[in-house]
């Protein structure tokens, strides 16, 4: 709780400072998966693949997109969001990482969400469009993250 408060305080304090990292780090910050489909269910998997391929082909042109794939009970819903001022190249590469990492982290999941510094992607077998997701977590200003990281590593080295 205290840590979360500190993080929020830092974000508020530093959000005005320059936030673009020198090179974008497409390492997932966090992911969350739920509900497995049976490994024999090739339809939902095919729909997820179609969904991700649509999201990937859209990402160079838009920083936000939502779409569905499939029909009936196997319909899957997906969306991504890139930070508003992310370049189209960086959005494309972030979503490219997201669609591949989420399949690694959430294999055979009916629902999954993955967060990065500059984008996030979510899919589900239920319609969540326009529904507020309360499972957020505190995001740290990326330029600040490296500062915290180097402070922490110095701290651990000193131990
Ligand atoms: C889903 O599958 C993964 C790995 O196959 C397993 O670790 C996990 O416990 C399963 N979750 C549910 C809710 O069945
Ligand atoms: C995207 O989401 C909105 C609701 O927020 C919905 O009205 C729209 O149909 C969705 N677009 C697609 C392609 O599913
Ligand atoms: C669902 O999609 C499949 C493949 O795209 C198609 O063959 C089928 O006719 C569709 N079913 C309905 C009810 O639209």
From TrEMBL:
PROSITE patterns tied to this protein: GNK2
Annotated signal peptide: 1-21
Keywords for the protein's UniProt record, in alphabetical order: Repeat, Signal
Gene3D superfamilies the UniProt entry points to: Gnk2 domain, C-X8-C-X2-C motif
Record organism: Spirodela intermedia
Lineage: superkingdom: Eukaryota
Protein name: Gnk2-homologous domain-containing protein
Span of domain Gnk2-homologous: 26-128
């Amino acid at each position: 709780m205290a840590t979360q408060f500190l993080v929020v305080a830092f974000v508020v304090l530093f959000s005005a400072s320059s936030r673009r990292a020198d090179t974008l780090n497409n390492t997932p910050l966090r992911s969350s998966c739920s509900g497995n489909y049976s490994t024999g269910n090739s339809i939902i998997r095919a729909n997820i693949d179609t969904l991700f391929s649509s999201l990937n082909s859209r990402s160079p042109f838009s920083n936000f997109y939502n779409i569905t794939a499939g029909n009936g009970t196997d319909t899957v819903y997906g969306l991504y969001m890139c930070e508003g001022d992310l370049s189209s190249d960086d959005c494309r590469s972030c979503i490219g990482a997201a669609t591949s990492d989420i399949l690694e982290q959430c294999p055979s999941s009916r629902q999954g969400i993955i967060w990065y510094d500059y984008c996030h992607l979510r899919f589900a077998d239920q319609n969540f469009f326009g529904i507020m997701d309360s499972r957020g977590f505190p995001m740290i200003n990326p330029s600040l993250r490296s500062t915290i990281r180097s402070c922490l590593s110095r701290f651990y080295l000193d131990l």
